[in-house]
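Mods, move this if it's the wrong board.
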Amino acid sequence: MICICEKLQINYPIIQGGMGNISNAQLAAAVSEAGGLGTIGCGTMSPMEVENIILETKALTNKNFAINIAISVTPFTDELIDLVIKHKVPIVSLSAGNPAPYIPLLHEHAVIVIALVASVKHAQKAEAAGADILVAEGFEAAGINSNLELTTFTLIPQIVKHVKIPVLAAGGIGDGKGLAAALMLGASGVQIGTRLIATKEAPFHDVYKENLLKAGDSETLIVGRSVGRLRRILKTPYAMKLYELDKVGMTLDQYSELTSEKQHLKGALEGDMENGFMNSGQIAGLIEDIPTVKELIDEMMEEAENCMIKSAIEFKRILEL
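Not the wrong board. Structure tokens:
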């Protein structure tokens, strides 16, 4: 934990996941101000849109934040890398594609590279390519998912065993218990996304937040299996339409059109459950309030510490029986 905090120059081993086109300066800055690492997800936004968010974030915080570039999602990867260098953004996370071609240039400019992976094989390749940190994301996570469908609880210890660089756990984590569990599995920290949607600073539609508060343990579903492009979203009328279409089969072009950032914006920002979707991880079932980002992160750290102390005492007691 000390290693990851020192490396990223943050107070707590908690980073924000990229949120595509609904990313914003307000939430990213709030996470960084609270001691974590805020992240701006580029999604399919133009370089000009991303640059505006970078400048706005810099105006809101002087602490470190990251840029997430989903390589196979954006048509502007090279331009976004140039923006990172231009504005001296200290940390970049690369997802949804091969990070290897971009790491040398980023390292030339002293940028720390985080690579998102979903298997041991991908983790080893990213490490060999020079990634500084890995985010290992389990199948419980929101949004675009690996078709390998490996769970966080099984994925983290296997990846930690096979690489030497720090690993952050993602997928199904949103409280102190999840943070403690990730640390016990060998992770150096966590990446969270869905839990940050339900915070006071997150500028998303109230309908989105209310659906997260009401969600039970089975209120998310996977769409895209018929085309091999998995996405985890909240159960809404639009999600159910996608799910039914997926069962009978659709083309990749149809699926891409129906799950574009246009529909993402409709769901997350407009609260339109009939014509847009809302990304959500399985952690939704544990969300019961809407705190500030600082309250959330402070509570996670306190709960994680208490959990680990309690577990150590209980384990010692068991050994003494």
